[in-house]
Amino acid sequence: MTSLGNYTTDSTNGHSNILRNEKCDAYLLIHLETALGEGFRTFLYFLGLAYCFIGLSAITARFFRSMESVVKHSRTVETIDPLTNTKIVKNEKVWNYTIADITLLAFGTSFPQISLATIDAIRNIGKLYAGGLGPGTLVGSAAFDLFPIHAVCVVVPKAGELKKISDIGVWLVELFWSFWAYIWLYIILEVWTPNVVTLWESILTVLQFGLLLIHAYAQDKRWPYLSLPLERAERPEEWVPAEVVKYRPLDKVHEPHSEVSQVGEEENSGIVDIFSIHSGEGTGHFYRNLAGEDVTESSTPNSGNIIPEESDILSIWKHQFVDALMLESTESRKLNNIYLRVARIFWQSLLLPWKLLFAFVPPYQIAHGWIAFICSLIFISGIAYVVTKITDLISCVTGINPYVIAFTALASGTSWPDLVASKIAADRQLTADSAIANITCSNSVNIYIGIGVPWLIDTLYNYIAYNKPLRIDNAEGLSFSLLVFFSTSVACIGVLVFRRLTIGAELGGPRVWAWVTCIFFMLLWLIFVVLSSLRVSGII
């Protein structure tokens, strides 16, 4: 593909127009693309970008299943009762929920943005100016996380249902580091070394992610001197109510008209419950929505740390391909509306290439889900790479400022896993902890890892090769976006605090007030997008 370096950035003085008129000779697949009209090319590239986002939503399903398997892993611990001197055997979860929220959930759902920013940085190795897609996408993603995702989560609970944060202390710690991340970014760009990022600033940015982990864990465990003296509200141990649904053994998965759920049928549902779990009894494996139960803690006698037989694993893997080729699920066959059935078949046809590709991801029953987790992230990185190429072409053909595309289309599309994760958490969990923690932690991860690591790559190379720092193109526009984001985020958090003080919860409540809050959050997001786009384009 022809280099796009001359098109992705067009200013070193901090200003650029929304539209430019250079002829774009770059192409994605074949050179004949350049012979097409600019309007038609733009339509095709936006269509390709949308299809990549569909693929991103498809791989999100497998990613969440694998992540859930990782988090649910338990280990056997033996202790001696000091009174009776008898051995006590119990199962403890390997992962602390707070750490899992920050690392697996927040890092995993932010991986599309992190991949895009890292790829953008690798492509710019050897250049004195950093690329604009990465930072722009991550700041835009932070705004999408905070405003639209909060807006969705507020209206997810049923009418009158209240869901509040049970551990205010942990949330305040996560919120502090989230706000500090953007203050720190502003200090780098405008105070310490204006328009320049040094190697040491990049290192400090990455190291602060470790400080966030330590501080959040200290607050969760209530370590003296390192935690806030706030009591944790009473909460169920597993946070999610048990909900058992129908199941079927794997040896019957090929019965096409069964009335019960199939293993792997979640791929057809479009949305995955990340708090579900696979369990086993006897010789067969079946699916249950148990959310809070680990296989090592089941009361079933033979349900300890279940390691499926090799034949079972192969059967599950085979069924992933069978499921990927199914254009009509059992549920859709029951629909009386022929138009709705046709629409679903059409949608499944669009998903088929992605589902068939992602069927190569190993079943998450292997190695507690780690292999599937890593493979899912690799596929996400691949999609992110294609997205960067298509975005460059859109900027090249239309002349739209890359920051504007990053704030809008890229930020919204790559934040889809964040939206799904928080929506599911708000719907299934008894509290609002994980739904809101995913938002605040994702914003922290976006800066400390998503911007810190790419900048570390470029600054380290420039330091070794040229002994010069990394310059930020249009740093003034990016700094202005940070100020707008900080101002609007204060309003957003203020509304959440007001809801907690008045109706007693951050999410849910009376339907009218929930929708009022939702609309207000969406207005804040529009304010951020419009003002930031106008600023980076040099209009204001």
TrEMBL record:
It is found in: Endomembrane system. One of its GO terms (biological process) is monoatomic ion transport. Its main location: membrane. The chain crosses the membrane at residues 43-64, 168-187, 199-218, 342-361, 367-386, 393-413, 478-501, 513-534. Pfam families: Na_Ca_ex. Keywords: Ion transport, Membrane, Transmembrane, Transmembrane helix, Transport. One of its GO terms (cellular component) is endomembrane system. It is a multi-pass membrane protein. It comes from the Eukaryota. Residues 45-217, 369-532 form the Sodium/calcium exchanger membrane region domain. This is Sodium/calcium exchanger membrane region domain-containing protein. It comes from Solanum stoloniferum.
